[in-house]
């Protein structure tokens, strides 16, 4: 590394990172102090502003994806969906500061009738879904059920911002592990102790969202969907698809539906591929019903 690069790294680490970190802590706790409706309203204003000003390439990609997935939509209809998507993303980012309050104030309604019997067994669980609505809010339900939940996350570079994220998730007792070489081992240990993990299938790897496939060839290896099936197979864990959607305004609220547990009894390759295809189709349908609430629309490359 050159002297110039070292100097630049030092300045970023000791000057800019703390400055951004302090501002991040200030904003986080100001947002947490606000009433829920005001917190969400600020996010609804900031989301479109950020994407239309600073993230234009992502906005263009999201537009292109919508025109491919919904070729019959008019330009005005695409514009409306895009605006709603930026609003939802902005709201979700601000709501990180009040994830626990959303549950405490009754803003998360749950239909878990399909999984009550399985929860009573105390067996390991792999919760899965996609980044819809405010996907983090569903963890408040899992916490309320006193289920020990572990989730992987991709750490942001700024150490102060990482701390803010950790604080938000710790309020719901989520065990977080960074996506490094040790992550899968920790998940193995957690499932072996009859714990629960959260693994969404719409992971972003190598500059692409690989699942759902949206007409592309299905991948039986390397994706979160493949990891989910292999983990369930190894630990005799149930795969529980969880669907969350943001309900209509004016009050920020969410509907969570937990679907019938998928237990792998036939461990042949044909059976595993069938489960992968079933999960993929289920999640794709969820997204197509409410594309404006899918966080990964601007990262998908079709």
UniProtKB/TrEMBL annotation:
Q: What is its main location?
A: membrane
What domain of life does the native source organism fall in? Bacteria
What biological process terms from GO does the record include?
glycolipid biosynthetic process
Where found, per UniProt?
Answer: Cell inner membrane
Provide the GO MF annotations for this entry: acyltransferase activity
TM ranges are 12-30, 36-55
Q: What cellular component terms from Gene Ontology apply here?
A: plasma membrane
Q: Name one Pfam family in it.
A: Lip_A_acyltrans
Q: Which keywords label this protein? A: Acyltransferase, Cell inner membrane, Cell membrane, Membrane, Transferase, Transmembrane, Transmembrane helix
- Under which name does UniProt file this protein? Lipid A biosynthesis acyltransferase
Q: Which organism is it from?
A: Candidatus Thiocaldithrix dubininis
């Amino acid at each position: 590394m050159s002297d110039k690069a070292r100097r630049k790294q030092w300045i970023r680490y000791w000057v800019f990172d703390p400055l951004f970190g302090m501002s991040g802590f200030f904003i986080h706790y100001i947002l947490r102090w606000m009433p829920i409706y005001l917190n969400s309203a600020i996010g609804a204003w900031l989301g479109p502003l950020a994407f239309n000003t600073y993230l234009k390439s992502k906005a263009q990609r999201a537009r292109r994806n919508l025109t491919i997935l919904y070729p019959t939509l008019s330009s005005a209809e695409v514009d409306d969906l895009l605006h709603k998507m930026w609003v939802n993303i902005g709201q979700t980012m601000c709501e990180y500061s009040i994830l626990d309050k959303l549950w405490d104030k009754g803003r998360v309604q749950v239909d878990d009738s399909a999984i009550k019997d399985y929860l009573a067994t105390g067996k390991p669980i792999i919760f899965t879904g996609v980044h819809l609505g405010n996907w983090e809010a569903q963890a408040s339900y899992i916490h309320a059920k006193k289920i020990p939940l572990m989730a992987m996350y991709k750490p942001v570079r700024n150490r102060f911002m990482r701390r803010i994220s950790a604080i938000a998730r710790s309020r719901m007792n989520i065990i977080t592990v960074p996506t490094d070489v040790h992550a899968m081992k920790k998940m193995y240990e957690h499932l072996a102790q009859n714990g629960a993990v959260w693994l969404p299938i719409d992971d972003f790897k190598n500059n692409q969202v690989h699942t759902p496939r949206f007409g592309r060839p299905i991948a039986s290896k390397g994706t979160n969907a493949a990891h989910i099936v292999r983990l369930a197979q190894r630990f005799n864990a149930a795969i529980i698809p969880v669907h969350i959607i943001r309900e209509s305004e004016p009050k920020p609220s969410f509907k969570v539906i937990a679907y019938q547990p998928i237990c792998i009894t036939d461990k042949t390759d044909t059976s595993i591929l069938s489960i992968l295809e079933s999960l993929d189709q289920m999640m794709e349908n969820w997204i197509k019903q409410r594309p404006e609430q899918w966080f990964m629309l601007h990262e998908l490359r079709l």
